[in-house]
Specification:
single chain, alpha/beta, 7 strands, 14% strand
Length: 283
């Protein structure tokens, strides 16, 4: 059992309560999707499942009653767990980082290895807000190595950790491969799937670059997992790069819609161009 979305940009509803804003800046984040295509999200479903959580833009917008949220990034999931369980302590530590912020402090904290989960979470958020372009990157030893950005002032008061914590209360947060989350989908559940990919894909660099992010074998595993979820009656909405091989992979089993959006991956505004992506949905 699928659903048939209508591809019309969504108009803001002034009467609707403001959704929770994601507290992280994340490469591939889906704020643009919420801004333009939130009408594609089914109104009725049982549980919400998202196997590539990232900044959680869609999750925080719809605030489902029950959810399974997964990501392979252990530091990311631990940050969500810490906010869910002890947001006040995380906020207290963020205010300390805010007062001490400087280039020297940034690099000192980047090298630090906190022990407590709340300390790890506050460090993760601080580095995300102050590093170059909100990029998350680690070296071969798994150590965060992004240089400092150009922010001279940071403000954490605008991060609504209290409501973020409430939204996360009835979530099953997992550090795991996407197949484990998708495999738990049942009839009537809603799967939002946003795998890692670059929008700079309209040339041969797509395959080369994506092998480092999400290999072709991963793409095929994802397709098979979504096909199984569809056969069980789950509602599926996914995004991916508009590449001919991906279109061929999905076109016989799912609906596909091509869309245009502006890439914000590039550091310079002049380098940010319009690219095509695809939205994949169960029919």
């Amino acid at each position: 059992m699928g659903f048939s979305p209508h591809f019309r940009p969504t108009d803001a509803d002034p009467k609707k309560k403001s959704p929770i804003k994601p507290f992280l800046k994340w490469a591939g984040g889906k704020r643009w999707f919420i801004a333009n295509f939130q009408n594609l999200i089914p109104k009725n479903y049982n549980r919400y499942l998202e196997p590539f959580l990232g900044s959680g833009a869609v999750f925080f917008h719809i605030k489902p009653k029950e959810a399974i949220l997964g990501d392979l990034n252990k530091d990311l999931i631990e940050t969500y767990l810490s906010i869910r369980n002890n947001w006040k302590e995380v906020l207290r530590l963020l205010h300390l980082h805010q007062k001490r912020h400087s280039e020297k402090y940034y690099y000192e904290l980047r090298e630090a290895i906190p022990k407590r989960r709340s300390e790890k979470a506050a460090r993760f958020i601080y580095l995300n807000k102050t590093c170059w372009n909100g990029l998350y990157r680690v070296n071969q030893k798994g150590k965060f190595n992004v240089p400092i950005g150009d922010r001279t002032k940071i403000v954490f008061e605008k991060i609504d950790l209290s409501n973020i914590s409430k939204a996360l209360k009835k979530t099953d947060l997992r550090t795991c491969d996407f197949e484990k989350v998708i495999g738990d989908a049942k009839r009537g559940d809603f799967l939002f799937v946003d795998p890692p990919y670059t929008v700079c894909h309209n040339n041969n660099g797509f395959i080369k670059y994506n092998e480092k992010l999400f290999s072709w074998n991963d793409q095929k595993r994802l397709f098979e997992a979504l096909l199984k979820a569809k056969s069980k009656g789950a509602k599926i909405l996914a995004t991916n790069a508009n590449h001919i091989d991906l279109v061929k992979l999905y076109k016989n089993e799912f609906g596909i819609k091509k869309i245009n959006r502006i890439s914000r991956i590039a550091g310079k505004t002049s380098s940010r161009n319009s690219f095509e992506e695809i939205i994949i949905f169960s029919q």
